[in-house]
């Protein structure tokens, strides 16, 4: 059996990247009927019908239409499970701290998107700890698959000649027509909390700790006061974690406790906590906590605005490039390493169709000239921190048919993806007999061959 990702149309090799990486709920996905039975077995891994249907509903919700879409998704899921199975054999692992960091960001984004932790629980009909556990498992699989793909094809590059040859192979009547696209950068500064705000947060937690030690229920106080959207509604309970899966300060304090004992106030990157150890089970431990985040005062926002104004002035005077300023000063880890440039999830380029631009950004850049930078604007990070940012309109491309002059970056990305996909297909061909693959009769019509 030959497993490959060979797509004939321009960019179809990238079709499912964003779809299969999406974990946030979508209204359209609620309409899917999720029936749990196995549709495929790949080594020791299974693919459930509910998993396939959920991904299909997400894809349809994002505008993908194809008579073979369900089969395309099944093919991608099988390929991912094959990579996962081989990763276990080859001892390819991802760092747990990376999983935890991405998990926290994704969960906070999902909560913000749906409008609260309680709504997220109602959507999935699960507790927050169960949702967190499910997402962790799925996310770890995704990151492991990505690591395997890097092991196989990560070092592959394309030359300008190969990019031109790839473009020349596309039939002229199949060249895509691109709508207006923009390149937008940002520099984000999180408002620094003053000492008065820190002391107020600590004092509030000290008071809560005294009430707990005097006999009040920790869980009830967590539900009332904790500012952790993921665990507050659950009485502060996080569920079981292994070592190095939580931020170091939290883990260190938790592991010093005996079951039922409450920690002193501790500080982490998220704010201030008091922690109660619920249970220790081998290498795993279950805790609950109350999180209080220091309030951001207006004076701090003013100081942050002054910082951004100074950075903006340096860039506008050509004393500093925007990319260098983003790398040196931005607090947004997702964009600072990319010269501050914003990209769409799963996209290999910095070009964003205007109809995909976040409205809060669109209405700002719509008033900017190419090369100009906005004044500092209010911004809230994915984890709920008050911040300001400046936006930079690097380029604006009018609607046009794909060509090498205007779209080299996108064409090069597609050529590279195609070359890497072919390398992965060759790897599957050489390793296909090392992993057992079985598809249920309902999906036998979904060919996994090229």
Major beta-sheet overview = 4 strands, antiparallel
- What is the overall shape? globular
Number of domains: 3
Low-confidence stretches: 1-35
Q: What is the end-to-end distance?
A: 9 Å
Order of secondary-structure elements = HEEHHHHHHEEHHEHEEEHHHEHEEEHE
Mean pLDDT figure: 85
In CATH terms, the superfamily of the largest domain is Porin chaperone SurA, peptide-binding domain
CATH fold type of the largest domain: Triger factor/SurA peptide-binding fold
- Proportion of beta-strand residues: 15-25%
Query: Architecture of the largest domain, according to CATH?
Result: Orthogonal Bundle
Descriptive overview:
It comes from Rufibacter glacialis. Its EC number is 5.2.1.8. It is an enzyme of class 5 (isomerase). It holds the Pfam family Rotamase. The chain has three domains: 201 residues, Porin chaperone SurA, peptide-binding domain (Triger factor/SurA peptide-binding fold), CATH 1.10.4030; 121 residues, Chitinase A, domain 3, CATH 3.10.50.40; 98 residues, Roll (Chitinase A, domain 3). The chain starts with 16 loop residues before the first helix and ends in an 11-residue tail after the last strand. 44% of the residues lie in helices and 16% in strands. β6 and β7 form a beta hairpin. α3 crosses α6, α4 crosses α6 and α7 crosses α15. The protein has 450 residues and is of the alpha+beta class.
């Amino acid at each position: 059996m030959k497993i490959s990702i060979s797509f004939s149309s321009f960019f179809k090799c990238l079709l499912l990247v964003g779809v299969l990486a999406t974990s946030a709920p979508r209204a359209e996905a609620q309409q899917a009927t999720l029936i749990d039975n196995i549709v495929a077995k790949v080594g020791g891994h299974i693919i459930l019908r509910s998993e396939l249907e959920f991904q299909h509903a997400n894809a349809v919700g994002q505008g993908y239409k194809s008579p073979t879409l369900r089969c395309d998704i099944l093919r991608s899921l099988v390929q991912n499970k094959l990579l996962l199975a081989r990763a276990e054999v080859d001892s390819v692992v991802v760092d747990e701290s990376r999983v935890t960091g991405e998990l926290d960001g994704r969960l906070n984004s999902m909560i913000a998107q749906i409008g609260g932790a309680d709504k997220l629980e109602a959507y999935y009909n699960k507790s927050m700890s169960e949702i967190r556990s499910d997402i962790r498992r799925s996310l770890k699989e995704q990151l492991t698959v990505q690591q395997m793909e890097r092991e196989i094809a990560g070092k592959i590059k394309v030359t300008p000649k190969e990019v031109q040859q790839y473009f020349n192979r596309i039939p002229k009547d199949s060249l895509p027509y691109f709508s207006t696209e923009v390149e937008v950068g940002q520099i984000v500064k999180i408002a620094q909390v003053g000492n008065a705000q820190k002391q107020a947060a600590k004092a509030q937690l000290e008071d809560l700790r005294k009430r707990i030690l005097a006999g009040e229920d920790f869980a009830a106080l967590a539900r009332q006061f904790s500012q952790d959207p993921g665990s507050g509604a659950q009485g502060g309970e996080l569920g079981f974690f292994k070592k190095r899966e939580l931020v170091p300060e939290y883990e260190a304090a938790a592991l010093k406790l005996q079951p039922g004992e409450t920690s002193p106030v501790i500080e982490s990157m998220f704010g201030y906590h008091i922690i109660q150890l619920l249970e220790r089970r081998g290498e795993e431990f279950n805790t609950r906590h109350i999180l209080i985040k220091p309030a951001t005062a207006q004076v701090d926002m003013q100081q942050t605005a002054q910082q951004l104004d100074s950075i903006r002035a340096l860039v506008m005077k050509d004393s500093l490039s925007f990319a260098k300023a983003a790398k040196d000063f931005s607090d947004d880890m997702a964009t600072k390493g990319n010269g501050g440039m914003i990209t769409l999830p799963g996209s290999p380029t910095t070009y964003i169709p205007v109809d995909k631009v976040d409205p809060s950004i669109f209405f700002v850049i719509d008033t900017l000239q190419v090369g100009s930078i906005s004044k500092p604007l209010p911004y809230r990070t994915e984890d709920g921190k008050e911040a300001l940012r400046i936006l930079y309109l690097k380029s604006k491309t009018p609607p046009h048919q794909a060509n090498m002059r205007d779209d080299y970056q996108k064409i090069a990305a597609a050529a590279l993806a195609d070359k890497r996909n072919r390398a992965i297909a060759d790897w599957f061909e050489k390793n296909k007999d090392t992993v057992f693959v079985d598809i249920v009769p309902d999906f036998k019509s979904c060919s996994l061959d090229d």
